[in-house]
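User: quick one
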Amino acid sequence: MWKPVHLFAFKKKFDFLGQRKAALILSTLINVVSILGVAFVGLNFGIDFKGGIAIQARAKEGVAQLDTLRSTVGALGVGEVSLQEFGEASTVLIRIQRQDAGPQCVAGAQRVLQKRVGAGWQAKPGAAGTGDVELTSPAALDGAGWRDAVSRVGLTILERQLPRGATNIAKVDMTPEQQAEWCQQVAIKQVEDAIGTNYEIRGTESVGPKVGDELMVSGIWAVLATMAAIVVYVWFRYEWQFGVGALIAMLHDVISTIGIFVLLQLDFSLTALAAVLTIAGYSINDTVVIFDRVRENMRRYKKLGLVELLNISINETLSRTLMTSGTVFVAVGALVLFGGPVLYSFSVAMLWGVIVGTYSSVWVACAGLVYLGLRADHLRPAEEEKAEKAKT
Amino acid sequence: MLNLPRWQAIVIIAITVLSGLFALPNLLPSSVLDVLPHWYSQSRIGLGLDLRGGAHFLLEADLRSVLNERLTNLSDSVRAELRKQQVPFKEVTVDPGRALVVTLRDEAQRAKAIEAIRVVDPALAVSGAGDTIRIAYSDQELFRRKKEVIDQSIEILRRRVDETGTLEPTITRQGDERILLQVPGIKDTTDLKRKINQTAKLTFHLVNEDVAAAGANIPATLPPTTFLVPTREGLQELRRSNPKAWEDIQTANPRLSPEQICRRYQPQCLPVLKRVVVGGEDLDDSKATFEQQQGGRPIISFTFNSAGGRAFCAATRANIGKRLAIQLDGEIISAPVVQSAICGGSGIITGSFTPQQTQEQALLLRSGALPATLTIIQESTVGADLGADAIRAGTVAAIVGTALVALVMFVAYGPVFGGFANLAMLVNLLMVFAGMSILGASLTLPGMAGLVLTVGMAVDSNVLIYERVREEKALGRSAFSSIATGYERAMSAIIDANLTTLIAAVLLFGFGSGPIRGFATTLSLGLLTSMFSSTIFTRMLLSIWVRWRRPTELVI
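Assistant: Done. Structure below.
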């Protein structure tokens, strides 16, 4: 049997907080740059938050021709289009901006009808201010024929809005908002028709304007609520100086993670939000381990200066800080390497979160304690002392 | 701390074994599962649509239009009632999305007008002053109606989407006005939309009383205008008395027509005229209620839109005393006798019903047409091969991640302590699987990422404990005492660390949707169970090991 290897047992004691000024400058710089990046460059929001369409397509033969695809899809009048290779050279992710109601969408619907139902179909916008659409078929259709035709352009409407008898004109009443949601469907069908001969559609995702707006709001709430809940927890468990230290470290981690999304222009989707929240929760992990030791040592070495005491505590807990981060790093590393393109943004962000979380526990949270002027008499009495006092 | 009472050890082992049993169906090959009892082999974790492939729709019901339509109908009834009571009025207008406004010619008639409105619907809230009367549904009534519309839409979607009973769709309400429709395994959503748009199969037909007069001796040849349709009770009776015939009807391919069923299996049938008096798409509402007079018998009331109302009025006026059969999906759900001409768009069906029967009939009547337009506001489709790719990537990442973490723990803490931590990690994975099986949660791709993350975080607790044990050992404590103190002192940091991450995971579950919830589920389950497996479970293993080997010096 083999002997355990003490992976992070350093003989030397490091003067971590000696570098606290340099660390302060570095951390401030990272955070300011991150915030400026969000403000001036902006996050690369995924369709979850912006609304829009994402279509994953794979070339039936050979590699995906991004330039040809860009001009084909761009010519459909569906607004801004972006393409990226996805996982492998044959696969491409086509992202299209969220669709608005309007004549260009109705024109698109006409193209889809002509391609999918039959030549001679027409679609015209109805009265101004509404989202109404008037569909004209080349020949009179019965109810079932109409239902089939509208289903092919992605409309789901009430039976009673469709003509009953044999007729060739259908007036579909919609609000402009309903039409905008439908236009998402029209855009997907248009892309499918345009590239379908050479590409296989592997998956589509469409987030309408309404859901996009809602997810953005609830995402912001999720981040704020999570941070607030964690702060309350830490504040409840520790003296306020520790709470503030942990909070600053957490903010540092969250802001710099968002900064990484800007820097690498990673797709900021719901999974990215999951990464940010997990990092907020995980950021505290290393910090509480060190703080626990700081508290213990403050009771033990009452005379020692704060900086020295913090340095001792950090050094004593260094091996476990590095080990705990190390195991998570290894696991997340496997996700980055093997998790596939869908999880890539999430995994990269998590990896960064683990590194920055470890850094901030030492140089932000503990350095914060120095600036907050923590003293031994700030500590709440420990459990044993409480018990002793009760006896006397 | 290390001297574990026997009962505690038993409880810990029992929990571990139970988790293993609950997790097992997910790990066994299908050949073994086929032999096991159904209830056990079926309690497996489902795959999310992102892994399994399929379509996911979020539909929003247009409740505002439904309300406006109801208000328009109500305005017709109010006008009719005011005229009947001879209350002169200037106009009755609809305030869209809110209320009706009645403007009277004579303020003095106000009380009489309100009385007339009460006759139309006693549940209406009446307000306003002078010559105007505002009529609105109460908040409670609005809430009830919204809920009814969504429930009805879900019921209809279920009927339409899963006609064949093989698609296993999940249809759930989301919030106040949304429906989540998930259909695994399909890629062509046009067909699904065609089903959503599918026609109402509810139709009203007159009964051919000349033929019906023959009773059970239905002639072999019917007039060309007439066909036979089985009644709902007749079919239910057939199902009870002749299950074999029932099964044949269900599995017949091509499907049997109602007339073929009648001829072949002879359930109770009615000859009805082929001409459709009015279709289900014109039926606005139907509800179970009670008669105002005559002792309050349970009845079914129904309301047509204006087109349906006119057709119904003409048909009933010409056919008083005859029966009107209501056909739904090839069954006659009811055939009440026309007592009088039903004009003005609404009528009632009386009979010897129990309240439960009227509830059921009202629901059946409503299941003809969708009550509200359902707009697709979010859609995702995943091809099966894309899902398979995701499963492959997720599995490889999970296996590599777990192996690497296990390797690190073995190297850092040796075969005994590292081994115990790794065993605990496996137990933790089993417990997460068991928890998901019990909760009926599905595994998604982000969920797999959550599992990998859990593996990395679960061993953290062991790292904290073992590092403390090393310190205590360095201070010169005995093997036994170092382990005991290690567990004791590391506990508070373990709880703090797990709980803060748990807070994030739980909030993410609350705010997130779709696959992200899968991540929140595996992460929070994993953190919770790791507090058992990494601490309580490993402590038991170590206490057994210490008593067995009695080490003088710990190799850690």
